[in-house]
TrEMBL record:
Lineage, broadest ranks: Bacteria, Pseudomonadati, Pseudomonadota, Alphaproteobacteria, Rhodobacterales
Entry annotated with the keyword Transmembrane helix: yes
Name of protein: Probable membrane transporter protein
Tree of life domain: Bacteria
Protein family (similarity comment): Belongs to the 4-toluene sulfonate uptake permease (TSUP) (TC 2.A.102) family.
UniProt entry keywords in alphabetical sequence: Cell membrane, Membrane, Transmembrane, Transmembrane helix
A single Gene Ontology CC term: plasma membrane
Membrane topology annotation: Multi-pass membrane protein
InterPro entries noted in UniProt: TM_pro_TauE-like, TSUP/Inactive_protease-like
Record bears the keyword Protease: no
Transmembrane segments: 12-35, 82-104, 116-137, 176-204, 211-234, 240-262, 269-290
């Protein structure tokens, strides 16, 4: 069943979009990521213009993340205080990111920037997570509990605050900076930023894995909601028809993903996420390196 997307100005199969939304919703519930790092490239692949894909995907992440957070709130695995600190940084970052996005859009460089950002960030984060997860699984098999650093440079910073749900007493500076980075990525790349947020919360802030997923989703809801609003009012690139179809699939998928995630060990979840991140990175890198079939579409100045 083909549907016409008025802002994207293309016709797409409705069931394909519902399926993509559902798949990304499952990831959202399992890993605490918005799923945009996977969905935005998939939207490129099915012919959605990059500017529309980025702005609309931020909207869909709101719904799938909200659905996932409800499930985590019932289990009391959301650190609302930490989520609020991350959120403050996220809103600042989102405002900065939309400004950069608008500037690059005026230069016609958005498509290239988005793809390069994906390859860089996904490659680095995926590799680090994969190596760490393998080490954690090896230690678990050998009978040693996975060592978690109790103290690093983060603990020496000023402006400390107590986060009871996470069992932490740390400076608010690192969470705010992580939030700013994720906000910028949400605006420029159409992602919730969970693929950076989750590792940063575990390894940098030292939060327990069981609290990380719900807290990440809580913060993502507001940052992506704010990003959507900015894109809709400044770029007019939010396609409501596309958003609704992705949203319906995402809400259902998030509930399923939360149930699956609860049954897997933390190390297994992290290695699965790492493999997924590296797979998407590889596909995008190939697309940038392989010579396109229609060369005139790349450099057709003045024709």
């Amino acid at each position: 069943m083909q549907v016409y997307l008025p802002i994207a100005e293309v016709s797409v199969n409705a069931f394909l979009l519902l399926g993509l939304g559902g798949m990304v919703g499952v990831l959202s519930g399992m890993f605490g990521v918005g799923g945009g790092f996977l969905m935005t490239p998939l939207l490129f692949f099915i012919g959605i213009p990059p500017a529309v894909a980025v702005a609309t995907e931020a909207n869909q992440i709101v719904a799938s993340s909200f659905s996932g957070v409800l499930a985590h709130l019932r289990r009391k695995t959301v650190d609302l205080k930490m989520g609020t600190v991350l959120l403050i940084g996220g809103l600042i970052g989102a405002a900065l990111g939309v400004g950069v996005f608008n500037y690059l859009k005026s230069l016609g460089q958005v498509d290239l920037l988005v793809r390069l950002c994906y390859v860089l960030f996904l490659g680095v984060i995926g590799s680090l997570m994969f190596i760490e997860s393998l080490n954690a699984i090896r230690k678990t098999k050998s009978g040693k509990p996975p060592a978690r650093k109790k103290h690093n440079w983060v603990h020496g910073l000023p402006f400390k605050m107590r986060f009871r749900t996470s069992g932490l007493y740390i400076s608010v500076i690192p969470p705010v900076l992580v939030g700013v980075l994720v906000g910028i990525l949400a605006a420029i790349m159409g992602v919730g930023g969970g693929f950076i947020m989750v590792p940063a919360m575990i390894y940098l802030l030292g939060m327990p894995t069981k609290v990380v997923v719900g807290t990440s989703l809580f913060q993502i809801i507001f940052v992506t909601g704010f990003t959507t609003l900015l894109h809709a009012t400044t770029n007019y690139t939010v396609d409501i028809v596309l958003a609704v179809l992705l949203l319906v699939g995402g809400v259902v998928g998030a509930q399923i993903g939360t149930v699956i995630g609860a049954k897997l060990k933390a190390e297994q979840l992290r290695i699965l996420l790492a493999l997924m991140v590296l797979a998407v990175c590889g596909k995008l890198a190939l697309d940038l390196l392989i010579q396109p079939a229609e060369l005139f579409s790349v450099g057709a100045e003045g024709h």
